[in-house]
Amino acid sequence: MSGSVYFHTYGCQMNERDGESAAAWLEESGFRIVEEEEEADVVIVNTCSVREKAEEKALGKLGLLAASKRRYPGRCVGVMGCMAQRLGERLLERFKGLDFVIGTSRLHRLAEVIRCVQEGGGPVVEVGEAEEERPELEPFRKPVHPIAFVNILYGCNRRCSYCIVPSVRGKERSRLAKAILAEITERVLKGVRDVTLLGQDVMAYGRSAAVWGDDTAFFSSRFREPFPRLLEAVSRIPDLWRVRFTSGHPSGCTDELAWAIAELPPVCEHLHMPLQSASDRILRRMRRGYTVEAYREAVTRLRAAVPNLALTTDVIVGFPGETENDFEATRAFMDEMGFDNAFIFKYSARPGTPAAAWGETVSEEEKQRRNQVLLADQNRRSQAIHDRLIGQTLEVLVEGPSLRNAERWSGRTRTNKIVVFPNPGRVQIGDRVLVRIERAMPQTLYGEVAQNE
Ligand code: 5AD
Ligand code: SF4
């Protein structure tokens, strides 16, 4: 037996990448991936645990799917991703009708798990330890998109007091450079032009040699540190136009990294580096491992080498103990840094993390207010940054027609800004075009194609 499979994916880019691997493994085993839940014999919810709201969404969806088994008795319903890894068989107890739970470390066994369920052997729980190794080569689906995400580092060795990720995704393990380069090379041959290297603390790449090996020594490089070495090797892959990475940490912003971003043409002028707070007291309680001054120095170092660097960030409001003063310090610092974009999150206590034991000191209404204030600030800031781009001609990698209006096409700049433009007819997905910017909104730029490159 096999059949058709539909995925609901929540969460971050790493989870999306896992969703792609899962789909590719299933296709290799004879399953078909479909775009409509209604058509599917198997429905899989790919979950995130980072905030309570993310889990609530996935739990809500699972509840509906489990209940829908009365209407679709033959349908197989399963859950994967971070919440599956975290809760394991507790999910089976909660949802009668759920057929399987598969953890992040056992994903390559998905086809077997589904077959077992389809042959009457369910429900199945396949979770295992967070740090178990998956096959070194991660499969991918035929790209329909010029942009791809590639894991370089699994897990996380930091111990931020609010974060569930280390307990779900395990200790930091660097993936072998050989495997990373092979995956990217293959993807580029299939049409990918823009690759984002993924890791919770991506600049720590290769430092976890004791856990899993650093083989960046196998190629020659002008750099000494493993992450810049890897960036150089990736940059040498023919026809790969853009390389970026996420997420950064101030401790990784070395002179060598600044030099690598400046000197390696494919490495984009774009960095996502979570700030979380700009109060030293809160940063210490968060156990972020840097001070406000260290964050400032890291950004100054990178901007000295890469003056047009676009900087994006994450901020948490309402962390236990955050006072009005702490909040105002964050607000002022965000202005000082001039972030191109910022994702603002209301603090959410995660079970088992140190911060969860400290309780909540900021009311939901106050969190909401702080959230709105930072969002409004950021909108103004993004608008001002974008207004300065009006009249400029920017390189855009074309992603295709926009969802809402097929005549409007969209793509991204090297700085990761979305650009919308009317297709003059000759522009195709994966082209690199020059677009003259005519109008700007906080999240989008609008323009006309000047010429194909
Ligand atoms: N509550 C709120 N936001 C969180 N994040 C991580 N853990 C939590 C939490 N417990 C945010 C951080 C991180 C982003 C991916 O999610 O800002 O950078
Ligand atoms: Fe990604 Fe973290 Fe959510 Fe897992 S818990 S999907 S690693 S954001």
Structure description:
With 453 residues, the protein is an alpha/beta fold. Among the domains are: 4-126, Methylthiotransferase, N-terminal domain (Rossmann fold, 3-Layer(aba) Sandwich); 142-268, 2-Layer Sandwich (Transcription Regulator spoIIAA); 393-452, Nucleic acid-binding proteins (OB fold (Dihydrolipoamide Acetyltransferase, E2P), Beta Barrel). The chain is built from 14 helices and 19 strands. It has helices spanning 13-28, 52-67, 82-87, 90-94, 110-121, 165-169, 177-189, 209-212, 226-235, 255-263, 280-286, 292-305, 324-337, 364-387; strands spanning 4-9, 32-33, 42-47, 76-81, 100-102, 124-126, 147-151, 153-154, 173-174, 194-198, 242-246, 270-272, 310-317, 341-346, 393-401, 408-412, 418-422, 432-440, 444-452. The strands form 5 sheets. The chain has a 6-stranded parallel sheet, with helices on both faces. A 5-stranded mixed β-barrel has the order 15-16-17-19-18. Strand 16 (408-412) and strand 17 form a beta hairpin. Helix 9 runs parallel beside helix 10 and helix 10 runs parallel beside helix 12. It is globular and about 60 Å long. The model has no long low-confidence stretch (mean pLDDT 94). Residues 11-12, 14-15, 48-50, 82, 165, 168-169 line the site of iron/sulfur cluster (SF4).
